[in-house]
Amino acid sequence: MSNHFAHGYALLIGVGTTAESRYSLPVTVKDVQALKTVLTDPNLCAYVDDSEHIRLLQNEQTTRSAILDGLTWLKEKVADKDATIVVFYSGHGCFDLSSQSYYLLQHDFNSTDIANTALSAQEFTQALRQIQAKRLWVVIDSCHAEGMATSKGELPADFIATALPKGVVDALKQGEGRAVFTSSRGNQVSWIRPDQTMSLYTYHLIEALRGAANQPGDSKVMLSNLINHLGKTVPESARTQHQAEQTPFFDTAMEDFPIAMLRGGKGLPSSTTVPDLQIMTDQQVVTPALARAKRALAILEEQAASFGIRIPVDLQIELEEKRRQVTELESRHQRTGLD
């Protein structure tokens, strides 16, 4: 098993076909199938390809109860103290302005009673909190440029299609070693590639999992590799292919951690031997965390500048929170004697 990422476990959810066909989104199934292929390829991410390590839910399988069952299944994997847990959701999501609640719209939701039939972010978050893994990576791609995101009058009054709100992300990331990625921000949509093979976001995510952002000597794909690659390529592709803005969002615990093997563990050639992963010192934690926070702040400031003086409220909040994070990390950086 040494040539596998043996402690990796993934729940991949591609809603695809919904009971109410107007909300169906076939590309989400293509996304999760492509992601499963790269995760389980022994020459790439090298997750173990069996029902104990990978669970794929698609189309009619993506019921509310099946998704919650899948999260319970992941909770049981925490018996493996070295577990890395992945939850990937691709489908529609919406926000209820009246109750200030967010919902993931799984296969069997009822559009006339979203509050009681869709999977609420609160319930989703509670289920994730039961997964006490040291490393948990959650990816939510829930504001697609097809289906209801571009249809007028498709949602009931007070419901709007939007990416995962910042407050929900904050709730999801509570705990040690947690990372939450969303494919877009606010009212931005998640675009599909012109060839219709998969979403633009998933395409670049798979590039990163194949090692696009790694360096010679690396043997694993790290969380930071994904952030660096997605943060650069997704906005570029959205502008080039769709003349639109799509800015991925990342919120992580300060420590970096491995997501997968790189090229089946062979990694990228190097003249030096890459040491085994060890417990990082405070210096090793703070320095890259500060660099990531500054990069994220630069992206946010660039986006804010494009709005001139009319910066959206959610973006203003993100900017202030990221500035506080940078300030706190800079202070910690100085206390550890790194300056």
- Overall CATH class of the largest domain: Alpha Beta
Number of strands: 12
Write down the domain tally: 2
Helical/strand content category: alpha/beta
Element-level helix/strand string: EHEHEEEHEHEEHEHEHEEHH
Oligomer: single chain
| Shape category | globular
Can you offer a commentary on this structure?
The protein is α/β, with parallel strands linked by helices and 339 residues long. The chain has 2 domains: 8-271, Rossmann fold (3-Layer(aba) Sandwich), CATH 3.40.50; 278-339. The chain is 37% helix and 17% strand. The protein has 9 helices and 12 strands. It has helices at residues 27-40, 64-76, 114-117, 121-129, 166-172, 200-209, 223-242, 282-305, 313-335; strands spanning 8-14, 54-58, 84-90, 92-96, 101-105, 119-120, 135-141, 159-161, 178-182, 220-222, 249-252, 258-261. The strands form 3 sheets. It has a 6-stranded mixed beta sheet, with helices on both faces. Helix 1 links the parallel strand 1 (8-14) and strand 2. Helix 8 (282-305) packs antiparallel against helix 9 (313-335). The longest helix has 24 residues, at 282-305. It is globular.
